[in-house]
Amino acid sequence: MIRVGVAVLLVGFVLSGCQARTTNATGGLPIVMWHGMGDTCCFPFSLGGFKSFLEGDLGVYVKSIEIGSSIVTDFKSGYLIHPNRQVEEVCRQLNDDPKLADGYNAIGFSQGGQFLRAIAQRCPTPKMNNLITLGGQHQGVFGLPDCPSLSSKTCEYFRQLLNYAAYARWVQDYLVQATYWHDPLNEYIYKESSTFLADINNERTVNESYIENLQSLNKFVMVKFTKDKIVQPIESQWFGYYKPGQDRDIQKLEESELFLKNRLGLQEMHQRNKLVFLECEGNHLQFSKPWFKENIYPFL
Questions:
Q1: Can you list the domains of the chain with their CATH numbers?
Q2: Cβ(62)–Cβ(86) below 8 Å
Q3: Is the bond leading into 233 cis (omega within 30 degrees of zero)?
Q4: Model confidence band, residue 21 (pLDDT cutoffs 50, 70, 90)
Q5: From which residue to which does the signal peptide run (predicted)?
Q6: HEC profile of 71-122
């Protein structure tokens, strides 16, 4: 069985994977970052170190999202605090931060990507300028999670919940990954039962404010890791997914009902060159500083 995405940050300070020539840094708007599953805002070997790197190199204010009042709570949030609650808290954080009053650019790592997209759609102030998602799961995932930051017993328990009861209400309330579990074999049940992804993708009813707010972005940048062993299907990182009714053949964003019925306004964004699709030839979240500078700095 394929595996659910895990967002332990593997930023390529010394990693192989995506390589590129170094470019000169330029200043810009503040940056808001949101970590993924198995990470926190401030681990020095992941987002904490990357925050320091961006602040030093770009000379801008960088806010790394922390859920709750401690690193422990922040870590648990990646598994056990419903995304809707997290988005509400982060919206308050952003509105209360005077350094973000004139707008900001956003970088989401793995599941932090779809969480920041929810911020763009639900929390239009302060204004998000560019949204950058690295390995985000915009059409969800279908498979088993790899969660090395947890004990094997806990990880296996999560696997069983997702396999057999992802759409039970108590699992949706209890386990973050269930809220973006997208079963292509049971599209109706997914759309009716998903308490997060089906909503932000406008798959039950169309929330016009979601469309308007998303279209207000200057650029929506999606990075797909071509050798990703965590996010399945990989194409979810570009809004692609399995064709309904099976779990083998993939359809691109442009072939999907989401696009063809224009449920999120992505057609217009595509026509206005607001959608940017980037590839990185590495495993999940494995990129180098030079690659990041060349490919992402232009949007910061």
A1: 31-140+197-299 (3.40.50.1820)
A2: no
A3: yes
A4: very low
A5: 1-20
A6: HHHHHHHHHHCCHHHHHHHHHHHHHHCHHHCCCEEEEEECHHHHHHHHHHHH
